[in-house]
Specification:
Structural class: mainly alpha
Largest sheet: 2 strands, antiparallel
Number of strands: 2
Shape: globular
Order of helices and strands: HHHHHHEHHHE
Helix content: 55-70%
Distance between the termini: 60 Å
Length: 191
Amino acid sequence: MSELHKELSRIEFEMRENSMTHTPVENEMRFYEAVKRGDMDAARTLSTPLGGEGFGVLSTDRLRNLKYHLVITVSFITRFCVEGGMERETAYNLSDLYIRKADLASSPEEINAIHSELITDFTERMAKLKNGSSYCYQVTKADGERYCGGTRAFGAVPFKAVPHGNRAYAQSVHIEEKDRRRLPDAEIFPV
């Protein structure tokens, strides 16, 4: 038997003897789904402190163990939020920022504060997304042709007036803030 298998057997024996278990997957999924829905009350209720009961031991160094758990948490949150409609690059960049912030942390208290901050941040962003508080530009076909350098289509979606309240279409022709400068007469409206 390899050393890894021996260690696994020892850990499983100790956990059984001490009636210890990892957090049930269903509980974790309820938490991630709450963040994805933008449900702050549920996310706070379902959130558990890093390194508490039900968390595995990923490192014998307490601070490193918390950092590893934070990376796992923000990685799952990121994927759930992308699945829930958050723009992929925004989600991944936000995740990277929190991981780098955690990397610089020098105490368990800092890690727990970052953990709380990232849960609040992602959940609030999802709530805004679900409540239609994001902004998109209404773009006419002529604007699109100017933006695309005279072409009649932007990707596979031809430009036309974006109907107010049509979130799916508005998101399909979303233009980033930095590109708005190229469309000076674009109208901003809440989606």
